[in-house]
Write a structure and sequence with these properties.
The protein is mainly α. It is 61% helix and 5% strand.
Length: 513
């Protein structure tokens, strides 16, 4: 295999002339120099690094892998884990702290060290751009070296029969786009370097961190938009003209009668993000800047590839349970299913409305019924995390027989499944809208968080004791022995389905687990 990004010893200097640049027929010098994506928040732009790590873990290191695959990968497990962990730590240290709110706080602290006068917006922008450059340059160099080591493992697995298909899929769908992203990142950083007129750049021999010496120029505007100049706007009309239609969020807000089914579906599939970067993720933003509020509990991502596959599967469904008056509980005969195949395409808008209304209702019930009077209610919901809402959503759909789609697989067997990626996409859209007003400061208060955790733990203890009392009432004369077994068997009616998921989030060592 040829891996031009890593085989090129000096990619920044030879990007334009590299003979291996067009390794897959889809990366050109123009692609590498296209820096428009860096107008977006940098932690989102570089998120594919983190997401690809998670995908590799899922495909090669999961406990649920077939035994023969686990055996084949086993000799590489330690090396892979070390490299993947190294990448994620680097992402947390350098990329996540390059988010807008984190850079603003850091620049505000550093201003007194660099300038006599403080509270000057242009000085703050200068320090933000300087620190962003240092952090992202450090991460990109670390990422290049680490992905090179992972590539060696993938190369080996690609020639082992049992792991060949997995390795090739990772290489094609997820790994190769990272080569473009890292080349783009390097080109973007070179643009920043030129704009800042960096006088000196040194690398710490121990940590690998990059530090630059640069003078403040009062005549410059220190923003990414100014760095990129016309790059951000030139060609926009041509490059994105085919995507001038409304986004999925706009379409799904319209009444169903305004939408042609296939039109709605095409807009769902062909969003702007898909066309610009097929390897990108649909994800909730992480608003916090602390270790405790940037954990997996706050994260939800959907690979666009899986989302597209899910939508196509939903389109082919012969029935979707979106109406309680028209529920299908058992699959149809193959003959009947063939006749109705494709009905799912017309259910997309109704499905979106069903899930959005369910999420709205869940939020209301958590705040009014489950934890009334909670301090800073939206902060509490945010700390609960999207995964709690997803589990509550699935439980609610199952309880009412809603949400499942029925379709025929390649062998014409009837299959009943939930369109999980579409569910998560709707949840992510709802989440982003619900918490658009929250800032990093809203969710960084550990005092608020700790009080809310104690409130949840207190509620768990109260319901636990009520459950013990209920057991004694239903089974008079029994000893205390076996109470936890009884509580586990009756947890839904003792704790309630919504509270169960919230207790799982905040309280460890419970009878719910």
């Amino acid at each position: 295999m040829l891996h031009p990004f890593f085989d090129d010893p000096e990619p920044a200097q030879t990007a334009d002339a590299s003979p291996n640049l067009d390794f897959a027929g889809d990366i050109t010098s123009a692609d590498i120099k296209d820096s428009r994506v860096f107008q977006k928040p940098i932690d989102g732009v570089l998120r594919p690094h983190w997401s690809t790590v998670e995908i590799i873990r899922d495909r090669l290191l999961s406990d649920t892998l077939p035994p023969d695959v686990s055996t084949a990968v086993g000799q590489f497990t330690d090396k892979l884990e070390e490299s993947l962990e190294h990448l994620q730590k680097g992402f947390q240290i350098y990329v996540e702290t390059s988010a807008e709110q984190s850079l603003l706080k850091e620049a505000s602290r550093l201003e007194r060290r660099y300038f006599e006068q403080t509270n000057q917006p242009r000085q703050i922008q200068f320090l933000k751009l300087k620190r962003m450059y240092e952090k992202i340059r450090t991460f990109n160099e670390r990422a290049k070296n680490t992905w090179r080591e992972i590539q060696k493992v993938l190369d080996t697995l690609s020639v082992i029969k049992i792991t060949q298909n997995i390795a090739i899929e990772i290489e094609k769908e997820y790994y190769r786009p990272l080569t473009l992203l890292m080349r783009q990142t390097e080109h973007f950083l070179d643009e920043v370097r030129t704009y800042l007129k960096i006088q000196e750049e040194i690398v710490d021999p121990i940590t690998g961190s990059h530090k630059i010496t640069v003078a403040f120029d009062d005549a410059l505007q220190y923003t990414v938009a100014e760095v990129l100049g016309e790059l951000a706007s030139e060609g926009d009309g041509d490059a994105l003209a085919e995507d001038s239609g409304p986004r999925i969020e706009e379409v799904l807000d319209r009444p169903a009668q305004e939408l042609g089914g296939s039109v709605a579906l095409n807009i769902v599939i062909e969003t702007r993000e898909h066309k610009l970067n097929r390897s990108s993720m649909i994800a909730v933003p992480l608003l916090g800047s602390r270790d405790w509020n940037r954990s997996p509990a706050y994260s939800m991502e959907v690979p666009i590839k899986y989302f597209e596959e899910c939508i196509l599967q939903l389109k082919s469904a012969y029935h979707v349970n979106v109406d309680e008056d028209d529920l299908l509980h058992t699959p149809m005969s193959t003959a009947a299913a063939v006749v109705r195949k494709g009905q799912g395409e017309h259910a997309i808008v109704a499905y979106h409305d069903l899930i959005t209304e369910n999420l709205d209702d869940t939020a209301v019930k958590i705040l009014l019924d489950d934890f009334p009077g909670v301090e800073k209610p939206d902060v509490f919901l945010y700390h609960c995390g999207p995964n709690v809402f997803y589990r509550v959503l699935i439980n609610e759909l199952r309880a009412h027989g809603l949400g499942a789609m029925f379709f025929l697989d390649e062998a014409n067997n009837s299959v009943r499944e939930y369109p999980e990626e579409f569910l998560k996409k709707i949840l992510i859209d709802w989440w982003n809208n619900r918490f658009a007003h929250l800032s990093g400061e809203d969710v960084d208060s550990y005092l608020t968080y700790s009080r809310q955790v104690e409130m949840v733990k207190r509620e768990y203890r109260i319901l636990y004791e009520e459950g013990v009392t209920l057991r004694k009432r239903e089974q008079p004369g029994v000893s205390y022995l076996g109470v936890e077994k009884w509580l586990k068997e009756n947890k839904r009616r003792v704790f309630g389905p919504r509270k169960m998921e919230i207790f799982r989030r905040y309280v460890s060592g419970t009878v719910i687990e």
